Amino acid sequence: MESTRERSRRPEEGPSPARAGVTRERPSGAGPSEPVDLVVEYLGLADALAHRFRCPGHDPEDLCQVARLALVKAAKRYREELGHGFVPYAVASIEGEIKHYLRDQSWMVRPPRPVLDLRLQVRSVVPQLQQRLGREPTAGELAEELRVPAERILEAEVADSTMVTPTIELMDRDEGTEGQPVSIPACEDPGFAQVDAAQAVAAALADASPADLELVRLRFGMELTQSEIARRLGTNQMHVSRCLNRLFKRLRPRVALDLPD
Questions:
Q1: How far is the C-alpha of 85 from the C-alpha of 146, rounded, in Å?
Q2: Is 50 exceeded by the pLDDT of residue 216?
Q3: Phi, psi at 171, each rounded to 5°
Q4: What is the mean pLDDT of the chain?
Q5: Domain that includes residue 21, residue range
Q6: How many other CB atoms are there within 10 angstroms of residue 203's CB atom?
């Protein structure tokens, strides 16, 4: 029969890290982890990150779903033999998916559907090219990989800068106000350091000519194709294409896009 002293040495049982939202790395000597085990163990981490990125206008349940799906993907891709901890890798993967989700839902001027579709294609091939090249691919290399004109890659990348940065509700941790939501602009949050503010686009177009502004309005505001723009302006599609290409290249240094010369 177990003695009172032996029972007193037994640590108290508590909620699992996944249930409590607290995570810990597996011991270095532990055996390989199955993806399902990692998902179960770190489910609380995904939910905690989703809670951190709460945004007005976005269903918290949707954010949790995005975070959990990202956790599943991270668990499947994780290679324990590389010696890197799972938690840092999972956090980066989950935060990245949440940011992409928020960006996709936060357009200042929604680009035409073909531009959005190409943007998704670009995002899908970037990791492959990064691994193959050992660096960030240029717009020209993306165009070659996707077999599309370089100017279409420019459109897709410029479209990334027409995002409205949403407001995020973070839980205030200051003494005396713990648990109170505090709204701050996402651009001030470290997790959104890479999100282009809409003000950058406005500043880039501040000295644009009326003709350039009209091109932007027709292409991204009215979602017209280059041929439709040409007919409306009484010119040809080739001229419109050259004008848009010139405009995108001029915007490059102002919105920090990696476009070819």
A1: 34
A2: yes
A3: -80, 120
A4: 68
A5: 15-105
A6: 12
Percent of the chain residues topping a pLDDT of 70: 58
Number of structural domains (the chain) is 1
pLDDT at position 207 over 80: no
Sequence-separated (6 or more) residues with CB below 8 Å from residue 170: 52, 54, 181, 182, 184, 189
In a domain, 155, yes or no: no
Residue 241, in any domain of the structure? no
Lowest mean pLDDT: which of 106-120, 204-218, 234-248?
106-120
Choose among 248, 214, 245: nearest CA to 229: 214
The CATH number of the domain holding residue 42 is 1.10.1740.10
**Residue labelled with tokens 């037994």:** 10
Of the pLDDT bands very low, low, confident and very high (cuts 50, 70, 90), residue 160 is low
> Considering the domain boundaries, does residue 43 fall inside one?
yes
Q: At what angle do helices 139-146 and 113-133 cross, to 10 degrees?
A: 100
Query: Could you tell me if 196 and 163 are in contact, meaning their C-beta atoms sit under 8 angstroms apart?
Result: yes
Reading the block at residue 222, the tokens are 């009215």
What's the rounded Cα separation, in Å, for the pair 108 and 199? 10
